[in-house]
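Predict fold of NmrA-like domain-containing protein; 138 aa.
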Amino acid sequence: MDKKNLVAEYAKTKGFKAAINVGAGWYLENHFVPEVAGLLGGLPSTQDVDDYLTLTVPNWGGDETIPFNSITDDHSDIVHGVLLDPEAYNGKDIQGVRNLATPEQLVRAVEKATGKKSRFVEIKDWTTTIDNLWKPRD
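Predicted 3D structure, encoded as tokens:
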């Protein structure tokens, strides 16, 4: 993330008509890559030993909402909108977001869509490892 910001800041110094940093929020697709979903507790693809689809992440802070964005379905539309009038956005940082949802809201949506028991388990201590929190079902 720091390197992306460095590139964006560098671009602002180069005399372009417009230099805009369009961020992507939290990729919704993260939850559909099994290896990444496993790092996040298994939701929505792998049930744990208690037969739950579990999301295991720290809370985000603030109002606890996650800024979801689908790279596949949303991001190009956001960038396109910015490019329609780039001078209006010159020098700005734009966070591309489709939907704000708390971890609990995400879990409820997955439960409704799949019909499978789902839950959110907050990581309260960042030094806790996922191996101590989540064990996949055999």
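The beta strands are 21-23, 26-27, 53-57, 66-69, 93-95, 99-101, 118-122.
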